[in-house]
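Newbie here. two chains, one complex. Structure please?
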Amino acid sequence: MNLLRRKFVKTATFVGAVVSVAGSGILLPQRALGAYAQSAFDARDVDGALVGSLGSAEHTPSDEIRLKAPDIAENGAVVPVTVSSTMSNVTAISIIAKANPGPLTSTYVLSSASEAFVSTRIRMAKTSDVIAVIKANGKLYSAAKEVKVTIGGCGG
Amino acid sequence: MASIKIRAKAKDGVTTVKTLISHPMESGLRKDSKTGKKIPAHHVTEVTAEHKGNLVMTANWSGGISKNPYLSFKFKGAASGDMIKISWVDNTGEGDSAEAKIK
């Protein structure tokens, strides 16, 4: 069952790549770097989110990743997060809020022209670690920072 | 509908792009305070950036991104005067795109 799904995701990625290469110029289906990994966003734990988005749950902490996030976020609905790295060959960046109902907030698929830099604003349900995971040279590296949240931003 | 604001600036060969998208970004977890019913998920799933027909970056988003999302990224190989195109699609199939000149 699970294997089948992986196979499907892989096939979908491949088809997407072919469409990109062909550069058909048709707007739909939209051209993108990598397929939208629904399973990663449905995952309720950090490992599941990482396997779905970056292909593996094994990541090693690295000093070469700079994760900028506030120490205390008064409003969990808007938490500014900036991830940058001095590593080369960075192909993807994921931003994870560990205690969120769905921990994976976003994945950024980079091209060869991209710099390893992404800045956005995420929602956080409660105080937890924000984890930035970077895929460089096929391996995963991470940096984490605890953000204290005064008012949660995921509703409910 | 102009739902995208773009600022792009090239400096020393690196272009910094800043974008703001107007979108409610409903996570699907929030409840309506009057009816107590859950508000269905309505959020941007994919943002793409294009420069001269080449994809520079794709962002895959969940409802864990704030309302009216902000995104900034950097890339190499563009000169001022070039155009940068940003497009988004949400989980209901709606989308928009906009172009801006790199300063």
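Moderator note: Chain A has two domains: 1-35, 42-151. The two ends of chain A are 32 Å apart (CA to CA). Thread marked as resolved.
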